[in-house]
Amino acid sequence: DLKIACVLSGLPESIIAAACARSGQRVLHVDSRNYYGGNWASFSFSGLLSWIKENQQKTDTSDECEDWRKLILENEEVICLNKKDKTIQHVEAFCFGDQDSAKDVEEAGALPKLPVFGASGAEGVAQDPTKECPPLESAVPGAEDWELEKATSTDPASAVEGNEREVNSENESSHSTASGESTLELGKAEAAPSENSAQEPKKITYSQIVREGRRFNIDLASKLLYSRGLLIDLLIKSNVSRYAEFKNATRILAFREGKVEQVPCSRADVFNSRQLTMVEKRMLMKFLTFCLDYEQHPDEYQDYKNSTFAQFLRTRKLTPSLQHFVLHSIAMVSETDCSTLEGLQATRKFLQCLGRYGNTPFLFPLYGQGEIPQCFCRMCAVFGGIYCLRHSVQCLVVDKESGRCKAIVDHFGQRISANYFIVEDSYLSESVCTSVCYRQISRAVLITDQSVLKTDAEQQISILTVPPVDLGQPAVCVIELCSSTMTCMKDTYLVHLTCPSTKTAREDLEPVVQKLFSLNTETGTETENEELEKPRVLWAVYFNMRDSSGIDRNSYGGLPSNVYVCSGPDSALGNDCAVKQAETIFHEMFPTEEFCPPPPNPEDIIYDEDEIASEESGFSNSPEIKPEPSPEESSSRGSTAVKEHNEE
User: Where do the segments described as Disordered lie (predicted)?
Assistant: First the structure.
């Protein structure tokens, strides 16, 4: 009776699994890794060290069952799947902090000892299974009535309010997915205002990073959520938002003439800005107002449809600084490759997302982007989905006559039949992907001691686009996260850099790192004033990640019609590509079903005593829906709820 078999637990696969389980299908979700999310995952510091070692060694996984081919019948053929991940390349890690006897330092709450990890290489460490292999239901945060609309607050105290995670003793582990008690203590400490914000940054050593490693949640794929984007709409519609918490990005930054400065976005920001003249404020507001309803004024852009957005901006009588802000910090598009219409659409999307949850268009999930796939996995499990980590798949079994996939064979030699199969691109062998041309993404993750733009408020979530030095090169997207996002320890910042690859990740991104940060490991030597003012990099890792988005299904030769391929993370800032892909695949399998409908309200489901007795006896039952209450009952129930809420 199994309908869906998903291989890998990335974001598109998790959304599809949740949608299928919600529509009543039986779902099996397997992943050869020992953590959820694939290349969408988040790691603690020790977990990231293990991931680095694994991808630097690239060891083959030996078959645990050598005779699985005996399960294949004469009228069947197999499509073998990859047993090792080839999506990550050129992994290079460097430690710029003080490595003061970190050899014997242990991560707080972790069993294994962590090694010294420096610029010369990495020594691996076994991952703590309670941290890196979380149970499905181990991280339900906050109160039961938590809604996404509560993400408007940027106060550090609100980030940890209601973060105590409830754990089901029957189905869940005693450890949280990405927090634990140490994270809660961190949040409480951050709730108090800092007294040393204007003083010199505290000296952070490598041993401190190792010791506080569980307070880090480091994303492999750096993303933000548009407040009116497809993913936010899906989280609200499906009620999956109750499994996660979010913070609003607090500021948009620009890098111009060698300096980082804040970009005014909203109407209030524009008129309160001190960096713009009154003339510039009026010019910017007039242009942004035009972008909101540009389709109503086609005469103003028709002549520039074949021009780039940068060329169109020059005709709008905007000053060079305003052109820079609009192009790189609001529209966030390429100077050479973006058409006028694409630029206007990107600007309008940015403006439409303003004000829904805060002064910027973006939200960030507490504990990292890796929480989002787990939220959908949790929804799938609630509706009967089965999850198996550390469970690799040997092959797809295809019927020669019909050409459809009948089953998969796992590493235990078990044959598992299903109607539909969802496979992540990285599992497909080179024989299937002969005509596929992959793009690459350059990624860097830095741990720094200061923000790229210091202000009175320490807890800032910033996004910065660094334009390329040479035309034709990609711009670099920089996302800086503070400790109140539960992604790094106190007095540090976690910085993600992302761009489409032209070379190795280090070659693409290190010039930008050198512009924004100081790589000097010695603080006592005489250096230039500019270097002293820059934030100092304590630790860094560079890697290239495969971008398999946008590949046509026909490029995968010989795949059965009931096997669907999902891509990994793309280089875009948002998650629209993953949501569109998941919805398209779901409707191809079940054209008449609604995609991720809201779950039923538990208060509307009741069981009478006879049904409960029959359920305990082993007989199945069907829930009854509560009748609509009378107006008197509704009013009394509402007043009681308000009274209880006020008493709390």
Answer: 121-201, 594-648
> Which residues, other chains included, contact 212 with Cβ-Cβ below 8 Å and sequence gap of 6+?
45, 107, 108, 182, 489
Query: 386 pairs with which residues across the strands?
Result: 28
Tell me which amino acid residue 240 is. Answer: V
pLDDT at 129: 32
Q: Residue 605: what pLDDT?
A: 62
Query: How is residue 376 written in tokens?
Result: 């959908």
Q: What is the mean pLDDT of the chain?
A: 79
The pLDDT-based confidence of 502 (bands split at 50, 70, 90) is very high
Look up the pTM and report it. 0.79
DSSP 193-248: PPS-TTSPPP--BHHHHHHTGGG--EESS---EETTSHHHHHHHHHTGGGG--EEE
632, burial (CB in 10 Å: exposed 0-12, middle 13-18, buried 19+) = exposed
Round to whole Å and give the CA distance between 372 and 356. Answer: 20
Sign of CA dihedral 96, 100, 103, 108: negative
Picking from 546, 583, 584, 451, the residue whose alpha carbon sits closest to that of residue 221 is 546
How buried is residue 270: exposed, middle or buried, by Cβ count under 10 Å (0-12/13-18/19+)?
A: middle
How do residues 508-517 score in pLDDT, each as one tens digit? 999 999 999 9
Q: Is the pLDDT of residue 145 over 80?
A: no
The burial of 517, by beta-carbon neighbours within 10 Å (0-12 exposed, 13-18 middle, 19 or more buried), is given as: buried
Residue-wise pLDDT tens digits, 216-240: 999 999 999 999 999 999 999 999 9
Distance CA 399, CA 143 (A): 50
**Residue 503 DSSP code:** S
Q: How far from chain centre, in Å, is Cα 232?
A: 12
> What are the tens digits of pLDDT across the range 278-289?
999 999 999 999
In tens, the pLDDT along 385-443 reads: 999 999 999 999 999 999 999 999 998 888 999 999 999 999 998 878 877 889 999 99
Task: Please tell me the distance from the alpha carbon of residue 611 to that of residue 589, in angstroms, as a whole number.
Answer: 34
Name the range with the highest mean pLDDT among 118-122, 323-327, 411-415, 527-531: 323-327
Q: Name the token pair of 85.
A: 């991940």
Q: How far apart are CA 31 and CA 411, in angstroms?
A: 11
Amino acid letter, residue 112: P
Contacts of 591 (CB under 8 A, 6+ apart): none
Residue 6 burial (C-beta neighbours within 10 Å; 0-12, 13-18, 19+): buried
Q: Which residue has the higher pLDDT, 141 or 5?
A: 5
Domains of the chain as residue ranges with CATH: 4-86+367-437+549-589 (3.50.50.60), 266-353 (1.10.405.10)
Contact in structure between 20 and 376 (CB atoms under 8 Å): no
Distance of CA 547 to the CA centre of its chain: 15
Distance, CA of 244 to CA of 146 (rounded, Å) = 9
Lowest-pLDDT range, 36-45, 163-172, 201-210?
A: 163-172
Structure tokens at 30: 């397997």
- What is the distance between the alpha carbons of residues 315 and 330, in angstroms, rounded to a whole number? 18
User: Can you say whether the dihedral through the CA atoms of 210, 216, 220, 222 is positive or negative?
Assistant: negative
Cβ contact 311:334 at 8 Å: no
Strands 386-388 and 362-365: unpaired
CA atoms within a 13 Å half-sphere pointing along the CA-CB vector of 430: 4
Going by pLDDT thresholds of 50, 70 and 90, the confidence category of residue 609 is low
Q: Which residue has the tokens 């308000």?
A: 642
DSSP 8-state assignment for residue 360: S
253, 452 in Cβ contact below 8 A?
yes
